[in-house]
């Protein structure tokens, strides 16, 4: 019993550190996110931080690689609809979720602080490729469509899209841009019946907002 309580407390402490670090990284960037700022935001000691993370760089990597956790657990759709829902919820949460926003910011800016870690992009590619493999098994894809290739393209497109949207509108129009991407892309990868019934509306973005 005591061991279980300690383990649960450790998980909660790590989550608090990740969330606090994400808020600080989102506000100040990597260079402005001092350990002291993060600890003050989390209300924790340096000992607690270094029990879970070796350094600020290690903490930044954890934030970068936590992006899917903000979306994937909340999805219950399948195949191409799941892939579309993933991107719509990503667009929505980028406006409001510091953990996702900080993960995206750090991933995009990482070379400026000495990192070259492709794993956040690779995570998204694999998650999206799995949706597309499921879509293939369900007969939703046109002949010759390769899941890994399409998944990589969607990650590349979304990466550039959110950067463009951030400058143009502070990401306020990101949902519309994602919807437009799918209107253009779906006819080239999906069979006509699936194109007709795949939902692209903002109501598909239903993940809880903390």
Overall description:
With 210 residues, the protein is mainly α. The chain folds into two domains: 2-62, Arc Repressor Mutant, subunit A; 67-203, Tetracycline Repressor, domain 2. It is 70% helix and 0% strand. The model has no long low-confidence stretch (mean pLDDT 94). Keywords: Aminotransferase, DNA-binding, Receptor, Transcription, Transcription regulation, Transferase. Residues 34-53 bind DNA. One of its GO terms (molecular function) is transcription cis-regulatory region binding. This is A-factor receptor protein. It comes from Streptomyces leeuwenhoekii.
Keywords:
10 helices, 210 residues, Arc Repressor Mutant, subunit A, 2 domains, single chain, Tetracycline Repressor, domain 2, mainly alpha
Task: Write the SSE topology.
Layout: H1 2-32, H2 35-42, H3 46-52, H4 56-64, H5 79-93, H6 98-109, H7 119-137, H8 147-169, H9 174-189, H10 192-197
Helix pairs in contact: 1-2, 1-4, 1-6, 4-6, 5-7, 5-9, 7-8, 8-9
């Amino acid at each position: 019993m005591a061991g279980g309580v300690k383990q649960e407390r450790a998980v909660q402490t790590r989550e608090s550190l990740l969330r606090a670090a994400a808020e600080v990284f989102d506000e100040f960037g990597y260079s402005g996110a001092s350990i002291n700022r993060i600890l003050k935001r989390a209300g924790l000691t340096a000992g607690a931080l270094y029990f879970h993370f070796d350094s600020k760089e290690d903490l930044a990597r954890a934030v970068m690689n936590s992006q899917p956790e903000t979306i994937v657990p909340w999805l219950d759709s399948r195949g191409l609809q799941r892939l579309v829902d993933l991107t719509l919820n990503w667009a929505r949460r980028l406006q409001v979720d510091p953990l996702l926003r900080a993960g995206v910011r750090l991933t995009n800016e990482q070379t400026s602080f000495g990192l070259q870690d492709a794993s956040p992009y690779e995570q998204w590619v694999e998650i999206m490729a799995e949706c597309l493999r499921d879509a293939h098994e369900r007969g939703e894809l046109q002949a010759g469509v390769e899941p890994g290739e399409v998944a990589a393209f969607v990650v590349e497109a979304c990466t550039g899209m959110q950067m463009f949207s951030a400058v143009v509108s502070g990401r306020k129009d990101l949902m519309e841009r994602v919807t437009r991407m799918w209107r253009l892309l779906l006819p080239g990868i999906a069979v006509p019946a699936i194109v007709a019934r795949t939902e692209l509306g903002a109501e598909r973005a239903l993940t809880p907002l903390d």
